[in-house]
## 1
Amino acid sequence: MSFLRNLVSTIPRFARVGPPTIQRCLRTPFAYQRSVLPSKFYHHGSPGAHSRIAVVGTGNVGASIAYALVLKDVANEILLVDANRSLAKGQRLDLDDASLFSATHVKDVTLQEAGKADVIVITAGARQKENESRADLIDRNYQVLESIISAMQPIQKDAIMLLVANPVDVLTYFAQELSGLPRNQVIGSGTYLDSSRLRGFLSEVLEVNNESIHSPVLGEHGDSQFISWNTANIAGQPILSFPRVANLDKELVREKIAGKAMDIIKLKGSTYFGIATCTASLCETIIKNRRDIRPLSVYVDRLGAVMSMPAKLGWYGVEEIYELNGDPGEEQKLVDIAQEFKKTCKKYEHPNRTE
């Protein structure tokens, strides 16, 4: 067995099938369907393949993500990194016990070692205080992000970097600028959890399994996020055609979804189980090249900003972005969010990007 492992380690990282697909923005309605790929594309997670996911920051969120990854057997190795080396080691020892029921191996490593992982999840940052806006976190989190990315260099050129720390849209942009990776390889968790919360709420209203509901929350992951009611559907049927939904107070629903995180923070100090599950799901989508469509923090070229839009995610990162089509009101919201985003980012200096 050790001979086979050594043999596998000499093989280039998952034999590529052609060059990465260039990110494209489609001015079409959302297409919520899984791409059906030839079997030759499913080279990730195949027998003998070795995959590594680094989790930077092993506090409540990072440890919960690592635990979810172990339970789901997403990767062969989980690499833990924290400024507090004792904490990282303690989390590793604890997760060792959980990994006895998994095929995943957990290690505590340095930032430079983390930079060689296939997927790099960054959760490290200052904890959000009660009633503190995400924008107020930027000053405290930017320096943390800059030091992390600097210490990881040189980052593996094919790595996918996933930002989970808040404000996730702005920090995703900063990571795109600082890492030197192509923009489609640096993404944020965005409104994926918010969209999942909305699906859960609507499933109770309609008494339908939440997996049958497609209801994206778009824009900023924060106060200005909005629900794309015009594209929400169940089995292709517009969700607004259901009286139970049509009669809802839409703004109240938006506030309920956007405010749930703060409700949790008031009660227990922070949120981590929900975002950990979402992050593990995104990592699985990448490692297994599933090409699922998820609302993620991505750079939208025509708006010049990072915000949550439905994006096809796979081994090469974001392959396509599915934009809104035909709703002037929702389009204006995106424009307004982009303008605020640009104002925020002007306060900071970044290295010149080389595409």
## 2
Amino acid sequence: MLALLFYGMAGTAYAQRVYANSFNSSTDVDLGCVLVVCGSVNNGGNAVSPTQIAANNPSTIVSPLVLSATMQNVRFTGANALPSYVTPVMVKLKMNASLLSLINSISLQRTNGNVSTPVGTEYSAGYLLDLLGIGGVGQQELTVILPVVGSAQANDGIRVKVGSAVSLGLSASLYYAYYIIPPTVTSATLNLCGNVAGSFTISNFQSGYTYKLYTAAVDGTEVSGVSTTTNTLAIPGTLAAGTYYLEARETNTYPSARTPVTIVRSTLPDAPTIPNVTTCAGTSATLTVSSPVAGISYRWYTAASGGTALTTANSYTISNPTTTTTYYVEGYNATTGCISASRTAVTLTVNPLPAAPAIPNVTTCAGTSATLTISSPVGGTTYNWYTVSTGGTSVNTGPTYTISNPATTTTYYVEAVSAGCISASRTAVTLTVNPLPAAPTVPGKATCIGTSTTLSVSSPVAGATYRWYTTSTGGTSFFTGTDYTITNPAVTVTYYVEASNAGCVSTSRTAVTLTVNPLPVAPTVPNTATCSGTSVLLSVSSPVAGIIYRWYTSAGGGTVLNTGTNYIISNPTVTTTYYVEAFNETTGCTSLTRTAVTLTINPLPSVTLSPSPRICEGDLNASLPFVVANGGNQYKITWDPGTPVSFQNVTNWTNLTGNSITVSVPGNASYGVYTGKVSIYNSVNGCEGSLQSFSINIYPAQGKTHLTIQNIIN
């Protein structure tokens, strides 16, 4: 920007403005102002006060009446700092229109720092003759666009200087100084393919602003036809690639600093070359780009335009194709986002598969040759024979296949081949070979008396029949099948089994023995009684070596509680019957029945002591009332710790009589409360109950004084 421009301006508020927010003033005195009137700045803070700016109240700069000048400096600081040293700054001034001829007495200059050091050129009135909006009488408001300084010169403020005008007392009003926030875009780089048009989106767009594109950050040339008053700046396809600069202009007049934006135009990739391919129905085929270009991906479609990509690779494999199909492929540069101008058509031709052949199964005997033959073979079709349903190596080619001296039943698989295509499946054809069966293998078994069991032929041959006898030769078969179940066997028996297949019988019968083992005897376990909560041991009487004893809570079934000759029951509380069986681990046989053994739980005796006896000093006995339960018939007494030794414990079980216990009291026992505990015992079942506490209250004897009075004051 090569000139200092002044513009008339209405008092509209704009959201993109950032105002100067700091000021100072000074007087430049040439001859001194001791005897004359000095210049002054009145209400200097108005020019940086948001409230006064909004109210349109300026500061006033009055020149001195000597050859000197008055200056007001405003700065952009903190959050209001200039975004760059080349940011255009607008200054709103007002002066008397009748004094416009003295405009040379007003100048503007950029400054830097707290002391407002001048920076760059000072622009004076002679530079401001071509004013806009001049006319009329009275005051004239002017908005000045102060040119930028070199990018290397730091600046953060503006100085407005009003000089003396031959004793006229020239004055000017400074309303404010501001800059416009530079535009920002969502992406500073616009990647375009070829001569495609595009657009930048202005993320801090503000209505009332015009956005223009220039060829340089300062000055430069406006790009013709590229401007907008919306948030979208359209870029025509004719605009060359390069870096441009985006400027916001308030009311299409007051400029912001410019924001660099870059237009990148990338070359379109070439449409690929892809040869056509022929395949068979159901056979996967791969279409491949010839000489693919590094950095270019290839997108495959079923449509010449639009649609969704099937894959993005140099090749595309079609699994199990059924019909001839044309695909379309475009080149795509992921780095630039550019796509080839057209898609290449490539055709996959799919030939139909021949039908799988029909072949009847054949049955023969071991050692007898047999021929397998295709029914109604098709001319021009080749038939390949295999021993596996898929893969493998062909064992024969032709409409027939003769197998010499077959030994085992075998399934062969036949496919048809026509025009290079193979039938979708192979036809299975079975040559059944009936062998002279070998004598079967039937393992013997052992079981327990009364336990049913099954004897089974090991690895029975498919198609063979197995007959069971009680003699090694001759006789009549009593069962036919691979598995023979003997119900409730009682004695050891040997059976004989032969195999037959297609009228052929094994040369011998196989002997198989069923060994029947006796059952172990149910154990003897004596019943036991114990006190509630007292662990007890139940034991098998005269246990037999080699026999395991298993304990249950039920006469049949249930879960094993314990294994062994002894069973400890901890803290039993109720009478319970247990059941014990004998198990021979060697034979696997279990006793026919379980032995019931009852554990009787005797309840613990208890005693209730009430009420506590009361006696006088000198009494030798106290009567302790009681009520017993659960057969308690004897007792012991233990005095609590701290009781005088003259109180004797009852350490032997003593029979209870009547309904109270006579407690011996020493004759020298003084008055007070004495406590102890009573144990209760059932001598019939030997169960002892829990301790019960009691107390004896001894009162002073009649006629004895036990009152002591101390520290009596008359």
